[in-house]
User: Fold this.
Amino acid sequence: GPQADLNPHVGNFVGTVENGYRGASQVLLEALGAENADFFTVSGDLLYTRWPKGSQLAQPWAADHILQQADVYYDAWIENVAAHSGFDLSDVYTIVGDHEIGDNDWGANKRPLIPTYRQAYVDKVGNETTVAGGAYVAAPAGFEGRTYAVQRGNLLLVGLDQFETFTSTVGGSYTNVGSEMASVRVDVTGAQLAWLDNALTQANADPSINHIVVMAHAPIAGRDYVDVQATSSGLKNLTGENGPLWQTLANHNVDLYLPGEVHAVSMQMASDVLQVVTGTNIFQPTDRGGVGSIGFNLNAPVTSEQNYMVVEVYEDRIDLTIKWIETKIWGSQGGGNDPVNDEPYKNREARVAIDTAAAGFQEAGTLTIDTSRGSPVYRNPRGLFLKKWSFNATHDVDVNDDDVVDGADVIQFMAGMHTDMSGLSIHEAFAAGDVTGDFRNDYADFQLFKSVFDDLNGAGAFAAALAVPEPPPLGLMTLAATCGAVCRRSRRACVGPSRRRMTEHLIELIAP
Assistant:
């Protein structure tokens, strides 16, 4: 059969990243390495591989060719991550995406090869044997290396294989859209779902576990799947947020669900479980912050971005920070998006401009998940967490960052009205009065600031503060030590006397 090769483009050679994306990939991986995380995860689609296709799938050499390609692609992926981020395989948690089992769809000739694809994945990056410390609960029979639960610090990390095969030729499909019959169903059912229920039940009863994060490749929550359809092939979990899988997550108080597939930032919340898609997610140790998902956002035809999410895990809260950097796509924009077969795509090049690279990744959104009272409370959303997701959250108006909401905040807020915030970070914009996260201090910010200020200090307190030349007495407006309904900034959310952060951290990588 044909020889395995990463791509046929001019200047590329076996075992390397495509030249057009090499620079941008290196910038991203180096940024992740600089976060000094303990481990990272990839929510599927590690590879963009030249698997057999079409008539090749029926050839007698197809299975051998898959294994040959797996040697080249997986080894190159591992080496690239290690060379530029400093991580080795023992610190990488991956799950199966559609790319790892031949890419969707799965017709009659591809179905018999699925076990070969799976075995190649397990042999190269399977998590049952590579994770540090072993499994929290052994994988269900038949899912070894593809489904796992592992404890890192006070976090339980669960990885699921959503691509379940079925034998019926009637009904079922790999996606909710279209009518194509297929041999793969995107869902978690049967033995794997029962295993998940058991693992989460144990974790809920375990005093050493404060938080649970679950990964699978396809999004579950959300009604319209706008981001999924616009930026990917449309894979999503068949049963949605009302189905058994999502309800199992909700019934066991899962904090975060981290899917892949979507090449864009997306947030959904249902049944007190938050679904966040970025490019990467990192959980870091006591003295550092965490990092999240990476991947190209393909919404824009020319200007795109790479992003990841920092995840700081404390005893009773999780702080999320999305970071991104602008990436320019040079070359032809026509045709398809297949760098192997579409000629226009072969001329594309993704680069991070020199001035942008020098500035590094910038914060684009923050959110705190406060679990100190049992049910999650979402505090202090800023940036993308306000733009991308409409939800009930407790907002922060302590613009001078002194942990007291008083007349001094009113003075600083009013001084920032209609300020030009171009070029400011989300924290600088907040200090200038942008409490709604849209890089403006306008009437919407005025309404929110006044509402929260009066909630904290009593009806009419905002009007009274505007009426006096000096800030009112500190005693009137000091934040309650026990926090109550008071909002503090996300870096110091009200979590009581204990603010111990976990001693592990995670990165989730999503290949573009």
User: Anything to note?
Assistant: The radius of gyration is 24 Å. The mean pLDDT is 73. The chain has two domains: 19-390+501-509, 407-486. Residues 19-390+501-509 form a domain with the Purple Acid Phosphatase; chain A, domain 2 fold (CATH 3.60.21).
